[in-house]
């Protein structure tokens, strides 16, 4: 019986996304030639579809009768292996991810993976396992994974996903073939969002994609959760707070309408854009906040601007201790308002 944290991999439509074309075609060709690496590392920012790409490759690895499409060979969707894959999940394709109780992949999960890798395939010619967040392996789990990466059975393939910018043991990276998954160009991203979110306006789709740093899946989430309007409310509240036109309790209300982690994401995005405004104003991602950010960047030394980013990082660490979101957010908004003072000007009152 499968370890409850090593689940059968399942997808209703295991196909690559439009912007995966060249990378997927190259990897699919290597599967057909018998040259697919036994350990692959897909690296890229959140929201560019690393999971979708890996799942499409996993489906192709177990499929009995691949068919040719514009992006290369894909799983046929009709054979016994594909029916298992799109049903309750394929027994020879497994998913390993952080548990609900933890942000980390634990050592017992990696041990279950090692057992799975040494077993013979149950129904397919090959076995494949997808590790959804290699950057969230705890140290013991990461070390345990090394042996499986060093000596993978001939019929076993591991696909590791890594969020760009997050730490990963060099010893794991060196044992995998690293592949970069990039975001699409703006035109492709906006067009895909139009298909996925037909009720949204073209302007909102573009705004969501910009706020998501070009990552279409994150932009889709923003649109579906109606975060565009909420973020605009937050921007107006912050702008008013900078002018002392509202109270702390009033300014924080729009931020409290979204999950605390997402409010921190928003403030962190603006903090990143504030740094960009100081170095290269045209690089600001949030066009609606650009005027405010350029103004603030022009009033302070770049070293002072970094304080709002550090404030968000500190608030994230505090999430582990059940901090009061309202008080934390008010404290962060106060850091932004402090940027209105010229350096050397003491706080009044």
Automatic annotation (TrEMBL):
Q: Does the keyword Transferase apply?
A: yes
**E.C. numbers:** 2.7.7.7
| Gene Ontology biological process terms, A to Z | DNA-templated DNA replication
GO CC list = DNA polymerase III complex
This enzyme catalyses: DNA(n) + a 2'-deoxyribonucleoside 5'-triphosphate = DNA(n+1) + diphosphate
Keywords attached to this Swiss-Prot or TrEMBL record, sorted alphabetically, are: DNA replication, DNA-directed DNA polymerase, Nucleotidyltransferase, Transferase
Gene3D superfamilies for this protein: P-loop containing nucleotide triphosphate hydrolases
Single GO MF annotation: 3'-5' exonuclease activity
* Top-rank taxon: Bacteria
Q: Name one Pfam family in it.
A: DNApol3-delta_C
Q: Which InterPro entries match?
A: DNA_pol_HolB, DNA_pol_III_delta_C, DNA_Rep/Repair_Clamp_Loader, P-loop_NTPase
- Domain annotation DNA polymerase III delta subunit C-terminal: ranges: 226-336
PANTHER family reported in the protein's UniProt record: DNA POLYMERASE III SUBUNIT DELTA, REPLICATION FACTOR C / DNA POLYMERASE III GAMMA-TAU SUBUNIT
Which protein, by its recorded name, is this? DNA polymerase III subunit delta'
Where does this protein come from, organism-wise? Halospina denitrificans
Q: What is the lineage of its organism?
A: Bacteria, Pseudomonadati, Pseudomonadota, Gammaproteobacteria, Halospina
């Amino acid at each position: 019986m499968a370890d409850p944290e090593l689940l059968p991999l399942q997808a209703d439509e295991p196909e690559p996304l439009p912007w995966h074309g060249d990378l997927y075609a190259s990897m699919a060709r290597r599967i057909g030639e018998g040259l697919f690496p036994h350990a692959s590392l897909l690296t890229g920012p959140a929201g560019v579809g690393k999971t979708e790409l890996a799942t499409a490759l996993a489906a192709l690895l177990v499929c009995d009768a691949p068919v040719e499409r514009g992006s290369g060979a894909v799983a046929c969707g009709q054979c016994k292996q594909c029916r298992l894959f799109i049903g309750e999940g394929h027994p020879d394709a497994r998913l390993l991810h952080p548990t609900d109780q933890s942000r980390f992949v634990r050592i017992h999960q990696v041990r279950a993976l090692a057992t799975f890798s040494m077993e013979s395939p149950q129904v397919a010619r090959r076995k494949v396992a997808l590790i959804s967040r290699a950057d969230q392996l705890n140290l013991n789990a990461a070390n345990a994974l090394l042996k499986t990466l060093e000596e993978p059975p001939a019929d076993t393939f591991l696909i590791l996903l890594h969020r760009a910018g997050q730490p990963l043991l060099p010893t794991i990276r060196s044992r995998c073939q690293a592949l970069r998954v990039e975001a699409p160009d703006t035109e492709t991203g906006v067009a895909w969002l139009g298909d996925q979110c037909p009720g949204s306006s073209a302007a909102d789709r573009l705004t969501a994609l910009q706020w998501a740093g070009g990552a279409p899946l994150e932009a889709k989430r923003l649109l579906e959760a109606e975060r565009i309007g909420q973020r605009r409310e937050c921007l107006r509240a912050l702008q008013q707070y900078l002018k002392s036109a509202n109270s702390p309790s009033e300014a924080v209300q729009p931020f409290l309408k979204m999950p605390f982690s997402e409010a921190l994401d928003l403030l962190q995005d603006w903090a990143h854009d504030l740094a960009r405004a100081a170095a290269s104003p045209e690089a600001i991602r949030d066009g609606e906040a650009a005027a405010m950010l350029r103004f603030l960047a022009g009033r302070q030394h770049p070293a002072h601007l970094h304080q709002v980013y550090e404030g968000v990082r500190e608030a994230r660490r505090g999430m582990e201790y059940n901090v009061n979101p309202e008080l934390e957010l008010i404290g962060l908004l106060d850091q932004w308002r402090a940027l209105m003072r010229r350096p050397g000007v003491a706080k009044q009152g």
